[in-house]
Design a protein that fits this description.
The chain has 18 helices and 5 strands. The chain has a 5-stranded parallel beta sheet, with helices on both faces. The longest helix is centred in the first third of the chain and has 23 residues. The protein folds into 3 domains: 114 residues, Serine Threonine Protein Phosphatase 5, Tetratricopeptide repeat (Alpha Horseshoe); 117 residues, DNA Cyclobutane Dipyrimidine Photolyase, subunit A, domain 3 (Orthogonal Bundle); 123 residues, Rossmann fold. It is mainly α and 423 residues long. The structure holds flavin-adenine dinucleotide (FAD). Flavin-adenine dinucleotide binds next to helix 3, helix 5, helix 9 and helix 11.
């Protein structure tokens, strides 16, 4: 699998996947066929898009992907794939209304690390899990696959999280952290909320139990044959937590009028919005600033594939924007002074793709916050997020029934596939 972190590669990957995005996807998406390149001449994973790293990095956006899919498939054929794309938008909107869930994950993760540092038995169990030495073949295979490839199939993520929580009885926050450190698509909302969903904390009381027969069935096409999962827990009792996470109202930026960008401004590209193209800016920036902060995902460091993807995406996105707008580009490195960069360039304002709850926001807001309070930040938020997040208050079903009206309202019909899409 070619994981080049560019918009061109995202479009190429999308074009190759498009023929499979209809009924084929609906029928086969549950199969974990193993990573591409595991054996010479092997077909590899073709039943899912593997677009998540590019979507997470904002090299391509959800609306563009849906447009392209609807050009080739009827809404009915594409329903399953489009619904999965909306899961991503739903999780983002849900976390945005309960940012305390992210803050609480960060503090309980810290406490969980303290616990393993203080307890040799726990530490051994944790190390065996992340190094793929538990003796549960399927789990160990996925642990190695994650570290090596920076990607796991959705079903594998569900089984892995379930075994971590209910069989190995490790704190879920440590597993979520392991994913964040290694997934190229590591995303505060999708990752944290999916782990909470498996644990019975998202849809309260409803857990996901991994079963050996289900794993064998859905891994049957892997080059080495089905994966075995020995001695899994019979019970998956929901976890509970003392804290209630109240919902806070959304306070989202509206669409940006061209007048708001009439004066010279700087464009900030970051880990979750590395390309200017999906932003559809109404006026050109005079400076492009790139800020890559993959190390902020975890206090325990980030894996090579994930870090390289994020850094490559921001560096490449900055170069593309610099060329497209014929302006200067500058990196805002960690510890650097954003105010000084702007002052030196004679720029008063910065346009920043919206920073949803998560580690990118945590990393950048310390310096962006004061500028925002002085009304020097113009926040950019996509229409699909703005329209969908309103409905992401409780379970996914509320969003699911709004998919058709939202696509209709935004005119996402398949008539406007992304520019530059091959084929
Ligand atoms: C425990 C756990 C942790 C996860 N962590 C992440 C994460 O950090 N980042 C992340 O992007 N996804 C995460 N997911 C969701 C999902 O597994 C991935 O988005 C998906 O596997 C990516 O592969 P794909 O691009 O081939 O997906 P496809 O099946 O091709 O789906 C297309 C797109 O829809 C979105 N999508 C699909 N399934 C889901 C889902 N269940 N939830 C949210 N969005 C979805 C993704 O953006 C994906 O790229 C997690 C799921 C679980 C169970």
């Amino acid at each position: 699998m070619d994981w080049t972190p560019t918009r061109a590669r995202a479009l190429d990957r999308l074009a190759r996947f498009l023929p499979s995005a209809g009924i084929d996807y609906a029928e086969t998406r549950g199969f974990d066929d193993g990573p591409v390149g595991e054996a010479p001449g092997e077909r590899g994973r073709a039943n899912v898009s593997q677009l998540s790293p590019w979507l997470h990095a904002g090299l391509i956006c959800e609306a563009e992907v849906i447009e392209a899919v609807l050009r080739q498939h009827s809404p009915r054929e594409a329903a399953s794939f489009v619904s999965e794309i909306f899961w991503r938008v739903y999780f983002k909107g849900w976390l945005e209304q309960r940012p305390g869930v992210w803050d609480s994950f960060r503090s309980t993760r810290e406490a969980a690390f303290d616990k393993i540092d203080a307890n040799a038995g726990l530490r051994t169990a944790y190390e065996e899990a992340i190094e793929g030495r538990t003796g549960i073949s399927a789990f160990d295979t996925w642990a190695h696959e994650l570290v090596k490839h920076g990607y796991l199939h959705n079903h594998a993520r569900m089984w892995f999280a379930s075994i971590w929580i209910f069989t190995l009885k490790l704190d879920w926050e440590l597993g979520a952290d392991f994913f964040l450190r290694h997934l190229r698509d590591g995303d505060a909302a999708s990752n944290t909320l999916s782990w909470r969903w498996v644990a019975g904390l998202h849809t309260q009381g409803k857990t996901y139990a991994a079963r050996a027969d289900n794993i064998a069935r859905y891994t049957a096409n892997r080059p080495g044959g089905p994966l075995a999962a020995q001695d899994l827990a019979d019970e998956a009792e929901p976890l509970t937590e003392a804290r209630e996470h109240g919902r806070q109202p959304l306070d989202l930026p509206g669409p940006v009028a061209p007048e708001a960008l009439a004066e010279p401004y700087a464009l900030l590209l970051h880990d979750e919005a590395a390309s200017h193209v999906p932003l559809a800016l109404p006026a050109a920036p005079s400076l492009v600033i790139g800020a890559a902060r993959p190390e902020s995902r975890s206090p325990r460091g980030v894996g090579g594939p994930a870090a390289q993807f994020a850094r490559g995406a921001v560096a490449g996105g900055m170069e593309d924007a610099r060329r497209a707008f014929e302006c200067e580009g500058i990196s805002w490195e960690e510890g650097g002074d954003l105010g000084a960069i702007l002052a030196e360039a004679g720029m008063d304002r910065v346009a920043c793709p919206y920073l949803p709850a998560g580690w990118t926001r945590d990393a950048l807001m310390e310096q962006l916050g004061p500028l925002a309070r002085d009304e020097r930040v113009i926040w950019l938020l996509g229409d699909l997020a703005r329209a969908t997040w309103l409905h992401a208050r409780a379970g996914f079903f509320r969003v699911k029934k709004e998919i058709e009206p939202i696509l209709g309202e935004l005119g996402i019909t398949g008539a406007n596939p992304p520019e530059g899409l091959p084929g």
